[in-house]
Every structure is written in C-alpha cells, then in structure tokens.
Amino acid sequence: MTAMRGVGCVIALAALTLTLSGCGDGGRAERRAALGPNPTFADYRKAADPAHGARLFNACAGCHPISPGALDRGGPNLFGIMGKPVATASRRFGYSGALRAVGGRWTPELMDRWVADPRKLAPRTSMNFQGIGDPLDRADLIAWMETQGR
Ligand code: HEC
Q1: Alpha-helix residue ranges (DSSP H) falling in 2-134
Q2: Which of 78, 89, 127, 139 could bridge to 66 as Cys pair (CB 3.0-4.6 Å)?
C-alpha cells in the first residue's frame, strides 16, 4: 500500500513538472499536439490561451497602448478593439486610406488575417509590422485582446 502511494506521488510529480514546463510558452507544444493534423480556425480558437496572448502582445505594445483613455503612440490605443468597426479604435488617430478601405468590423477572423500579414489585408497600411506566422499564437493573442475592454 505504502509503495503504491509512493508510485502515485512520483506520477503526480511528473505530471506537475510537465504542467510547469509547459508554462513558459502557454503549453504550446501540448496544445498543438492535441489539435491534430488539420486544425480549423475554430479549433485554434478553442485551444487558445489568453495568458500566452498577453505576453505576445509585447510585440504590439511598443506602438499600441491597450487601456482605457490611454493616448495613442505610433499606433492607436486598442482598448475594446474587438467588434469595433475597422479604423475606429481612436478618434484622434490618422489612419491610412488603406486601412479605412478595409471596412467591416474586427471579428476574430478579420483580426487573424490582419495580424498574420497586415500588408496582405491592407496594402500600403502604415502599420509597420511583419505579422505573426503561427496560427496558434494568433489565436492566443486574439483571445487575450477579447478580454481587454469588453
Ligand atoms: C511599429 C508600430 C506597430 C506595431 C508593432 C503594431 N502596430 Fe498595429 N497599428 C500601427 C499603425 C501605425 C496602425 C494604423 C494603420 C493604418 O492606418 O494603416 C495600426 C493599426 C492597428 C489596428 C487597427 C485599429 C483600428 O482602429 O481599426 C489593429 C487592430 C492593430 N494595429 C493591431 C496590432 C497588433 C495586434 C499588433 C501586434 C501583433 C500590432 N498592431 C503591432 C502600428 C503598429
């Protein structure tokens, strides 16, 4: 009995170590493995980890504040951006004609296309950002942005 309990402890410890080692990247490898071979956009959305998305926003934060009332920097304040019409995050910001021409609202799908490759969605946009190639990273980022201002 005691020996069994000991084995249980070792297993629990191994599981804990696995969980902790996954923390740094939001358990990305595990989440990716669980997605299977041909994940859909909905699959990525379901697997999204907003805590990891918060860290990924560091790539945006140099240009974009994301808090109520914050002044625009190189880019507009993105607080509450999800669901808003495109090019309306800030009333003061001077958007490019390219972005204004996109139209519609910031759905998760549109945000995914934008963050993947801004110049593909809006050629000649003034957002100087190369994009995030990994769909799971984009899903993480969008899941976090959805929590900022809703
Ligand atoms: C080098 C500065 C810079 C970086 C880095 C940057 N952006 Fe931007 N962003 C801009 C600028 C400038 C615009 C306005 C683009 C235009 O008008 O064409 C913009 C516009 C946007 C908009 C449209 C806002 C609206 O009102 O519709 C979104 C959404 C956005 N950025 C998200 C992001 C995200 C998410 C990241 C990080 C993954 C990011 N940006 C990284 C500068 C930046």
Answers
A1: 2-21, 28-35, 41-47, 50-56, 58-61, 97-100, 108-116, 118-121
A2: 78
CATH entry, 25-145, from 1.10.760.10, 3.40.1080.10, 1.10.1040.10, 2.60.120.10: 1.10.760.10
At residue 27 the predicted structure's pLDDT band, cuts being 50, 70 and 90, is confident
Q: What is the pLDDT of residues 36-77, one digit of tens each?
A: 899 999 999 999 999 999 999 999 999 999 999 999 999 999
